[in-house]
Specification:
Blueprint: H1 7-19, H2 22-29, H3 33-47, E1 52-53, E2 60-61, H4 63-88, E3 96-101, H5 107-120, E4 125-130, H6 135-141, E5 147-150, E6 159-175, H7 190-193, E7 198-201, E8 220-223, H8 226-234, E9 240-243, H9 244-253, E10 256-258, E11 269-279, H10 286-301
Parallel strand pairs: 3-4, 3-5, 7-8
Antiparallel strand pairs: 1-2, 5-11, 6-9, 6-10, 6-11
Helix pairs in contact: 1-2, 1-3, 1-4, 2-3, 5-10
Keywords: DNA-binding, Transcription, Transcription regulation
Organism: Aminobacter anthyllidis
GO molecular function: DNA-binding transcription factor activity; transcription cis-regulatory region binding
């Protein structure tokens, strides 16, 4: 019989696993360590299997614990979603809506969806936060926003995701007077590309600490925003990847050119897909739901 299992026991189990120790689990749940140990002991007694080995400095998951961890997480996600849905029943219109947006999202599509939101719900205020890389996801996980719009594919178990559609691609570009502007017939090799300074945007969140994405040159300058990155590339300081919507006019005028390199593909571009994210335990109100609907429509229309 498993009727005596409690959600509290399962939350404690997951907290210990995610924290890495009984002490860390206690800190996460703001409890004393003895209460955590007691809850885990009761859970093991109810399940009749050991969840942790306790011979080392830190408790290690047993094979049984590893198998049951996914079940515990799935149950807690379902319960959180049920509570969120219950809180959302009969919920009134939001006073304001905080939205985190990856700056590579085409601004015309975003502005169009926000225009639609304003027309439908003029009393709702909007706080728009432009956060690059995985900072938008980080803000959502930490409840600093209600919705996040991003092209990042990393996910969290507390986050629901909906594909909005293709966003304009990232393209590798440099100034027309930059040495990379005139490529050999086969394109620049990765070794040749690494001889030139690359301008990259740093992720302000801790979620990619120590990791680099799309960085091919050992020599880099790091900036905090796309506008600064574009200005440095236009000046010929280095090369880099930028969303096509941001550079298509300069490409058409010949101020910028695409970098042709075997390491980044024949078209020197990376396809991007936009996603809308929200927490499963935070119900979406009428304004958030309307914005979600309009984003789907706008991305579908490309405007």
């Amino acid at each position: 019989m498993l009727d005596n299992l409690t959600l509290d026991q399962m939350r404690t189990f997951v907290a210990v696993v995610e924290g890495g120790s009984f002490r860390a689990g206690a800190a996460r749940l703001s409890r004393v360590q003895s209460a955590i140990s007691h809850a885990i002991g009761n859970l093991e007694a109810e399940l009749k299997v050991p969840l942790f080995t306790r011979t080392g400095r830190k408790p290690e998951l047993t094979a049984e614990g590893q198998a049951l961890l996914a079940d515990a997480r799935a149950i807690l996600i379902k319960v959180d979603a049920m509570r969120a849905r219950a809180r959302g029943l009969g919920q009134g219109l939001e006073l304001s809506l905080a939205v985190a947006v990856d700056p590579v999202i085409p601004p015309g599509i975003l502005a169009g969806a926000l225009f639609d939101l304003r027309a439908e719900h003029p009393s709702v205020g909007v706080a728009l936060k432009t956060l690059p890389m995985r900072a938008a996801l980080h803000a959502l996980i930490n409840r600093h926003c209600t919705l996040a719009i991003t092209t990042d594919t990393q996910r969290d178990s507390l986050v629901e995701a909906e594909c909005l559609g293709p966003a304009q691609p990232f393209v590798a570009i440099c100034a027309a007077h930059h040495p990379l502007a005139t490529a050999p017939a086969a394109g620049w090799s990765a070794v040749e590309l690494s001889d030139h300074l690359q301008i990259v945007v740093s992720d302000p969140s801790p979620m990619t600490e120590g990791l680099d994405f799309g960085v091919l040159s050992p020599g880099t300058w790091r900036v905090s925003d796309l506008a600064t990155k574009l200005a440095l590339i236009q000046a010929g300081v280095g090369w880099g990847n930028l969303p096509l919507w941001m550079v298509d006019a300069d490409l058409a005028r010949g101020v910028l050119v695409r970098v042709t390199a075997t390491a980044i593909g024949a078209q020197a571009e990376t396809a991007l897909t936009a996603y809308l994210l929200w927490r499963i335990d935070q119900p979406l109100g009428p304004a958030a739901l309307h914005l979600r609907e309009r984003l789907v429509v706008r991305f579908g229309q490309g405007v």
